[in-house]
Design a protein that fits this description.
Number of helices: 16
Strand content: 15-25%
Largest sheet: 8 strands, mixed
Number of domains: 2
Distance between the termini: 74 Å
CATH topology of the largest domain: BirA Bifunctional Protein, domain 2
CATH class of the largest domain: Alpha Beta
CATH architecture of the largest domain: 2-Layer Sandwich
Shape: elongated
Strand order of the largest sheet: 1-5-6-11-10-9-7-8
Number of strands: 16
Radius of gyration: 29 Å
Oligomer: single chain
Helix content: 25-40%
Bound molecules: adenosine-5'-triphosphate, magnesium ion
CATH superfamily of the largest domain: Bira Bifunctional Protein, Domain 2
Length: about 450
């Protein structure tokens, strides 16, 4: 076998002639370019503001966790764990690791590890990338972003209701008109004994209709029949439609809990629809489950999903404590905002600073620093060039005003202020008056 070493080493000439091929991003993982970022920054800032309004504090966890964190929390027989996780063995120590497909499990892991609940219940929020090996399509990516909140140690129905009021307020804060807001669908999964009774009825029903089940569902019949209800296969929908429904199995306590949540929503004027078939794709839910769904995005219309998960903290090795939370898909939310109305953002730059002539650079930089100290956003012209080309660049920068430090200005100890938008006239000002004059024009 020819050895690699036996091949002639490439000469300088062959290296120079081989043009490197351009590389591309991983399929289903998107770059966010500067022109995309205005809306992302707007949504991130608005969400952070609204979360804070309800007393939620930010938390950040690593994007990689031990695989067991997700398997234990999400459940073996789920789409995520069965086929969507990016799992790998750490080549250095052999640990099984996974890129997080969602963040509830990791937040709960962190809360237990750092004893956060020792201080009392915690309202936490996060934002960041998640990873799932799905078939990329509009609204479904392999790296996507979620905003989420988790109320850990909170067991009362007003906390579920409050989270839904928060989402409704977020839609409002983002400027989505009431008729364009995602619709809230809500259900109750009850307590575990009620789910067990429902499960038995489901197994009996689906066993009697085994021939109508696809391969995935036949397998789930023996492992996790509730998941069959969550199937996306259109051929399965008729048999799912007639299956026993969870709400029929709820006892008094579960019903009372649900009624309290719905009553608050009604009194607060948040519209909702009860959907007895809503089960959600993860194992850890009980009682309240909900989704916010829009028809403005085509097939991937679920913008937000969540609910109560009273058993998860104990399952993850913590002291038993109730909890509830949700996650919002940021790409879908931004898609919805773009479908509703293009975002109007203010200009990013206040000043474009033009300068020329011997020794102008240092003086321009000192002037730019003085303006920035007054809170102004200043882009300094870099790289010389004619006055005409500097004016063109100032115009294209989007700045509100140009500050000009040409040879004449500097000889006179002044600066010229040239408004780039609106009607105001160009004028010269003394250096000490410059910041005030710019602020008058830009604020
Ligand atoms: P779906 O039914 O669309 O697969 P899911 O039940 O898997 O959603 P969750 O795990 O509940 O989704 O995640 C919460 C939200 O995160 C979803 O409602 C959606 O907005 C968003 N989301 C989930 N998976 C993706 C993805 N692959 N790409 C973009 N957004 C996603
Ligand atoms: Mg999914």
């Amino acid at each position: 076998m020819p050895s690699l070493l036996a091949q002639p080493a490439p000469t300088d000439a062959t290296l120079r002639s081989a043009k490197p091929t351009a590389l591309s991003a991983v399929k289903g993982m998107n770059d966010l370019l500067p022109e995309d970022m205005a809306i992302w920054e707007h949504v991130e800032a608005t969400a952070a503001y609204v979360f804070r309004q309800y007393g939620y504090r930010a938390i950040r966890t690593p994007i990689v966790e031990q695989t067991a964190v997700f398997v234990r929390a999400i459940g073996e027989v789920t789409d995520i764990v069965e086929k969507e996780m990016y799992t790998f063995t750490d080549a250095l120590n052999g640990e099984q690791l996974t890129l997080r497909p969602e963040n509830t499990a990791a937040v709960v892991r962190a809360a237990i590890e750092h004893n956060l609940l020792y201080e009392g219940p915690q309202r936490l929020w996060y934002f960041g990338p998640m990873f799932r090996h799905e078939r990329p399509q509009k609204g479904r990516y392999r790296q996507f972003h979620q905003f989420g909140i988790e109320a850990l140690g909170h067991g009362s129905p007003e906390v579920d209701a409050e989270q839904l009021l928060l989402v409704w307020r977020l839609w409002e804060a983002l400027g989505i008109k009431p008729e364009q807001r995602p619709a809230l669908e809500i259900n109750s999964l009850g307590a575990s004994a009620e789910r067990a009774a429902h499960r038995e009825a489901l197994v009996a029903y689906f066993s009697a209709h085994a021939s109508a089940l696809d391969a995935d569902s036949q397998r789930r019949l023996g492992t996790n029949p509730l998941r069959i209800l969550d199937s996306k296969n259109p051929a399965m929908q008729p048999v799912i439609a007639d299956a026993p429904q969870l709400p029929d199995f709820l006892g008094d306590e579960s019903r009372r809990f649900e009624d309290q949540v719905l009553d608050i929503l009604t009194q607060a004027g948040v519209p909702f629809r009860q959907n007895p078939r809503l089960v959600r794709g993860l194992d850890y839910y009980n009682l309240t489950v909900f989704e916010w769904v829009t028809d403005l995005l085509g097939a991937q219309g679920t913008v937000c999903g969540g609910g109560r998960y009273d058993g998860l903290i104990e399952m993850m090795g913590g002291k038993p404590a109730p909890a509830c939370g949700f996650a919002i898909g940021a790409e879908r939310l931004i898609g919805l905002l773009q479908a509703c109305a293009p975002l109007k953002t203010g200009p990013l730059l206040d000043v474009y600073l033009m300068h020329w002539g011997e020794g102008s650079t240092a003086q321009a930089m000192v002037t730019a620093e003085a303006l920035r100290s007054r809170g102004l956003a200043v882009q300094m012209h870099a790289g010389g060039g004619s006055v005409k080309s500097q004016i063109k660049k100032a115009d294209a920068s989007g700045a509100q005003v140009a500050v000009i430090l040409g040879e004449d200005e500097r000889a006179a100890g002044k600066a010229t202020l040239k408004p780039l938008r609106g009607q105001a006239d160009q004028r010269t000002v003394l250096p000490g008056d410059l910041a005030e004059a710019v602020l008058c024009l830009t604020r």
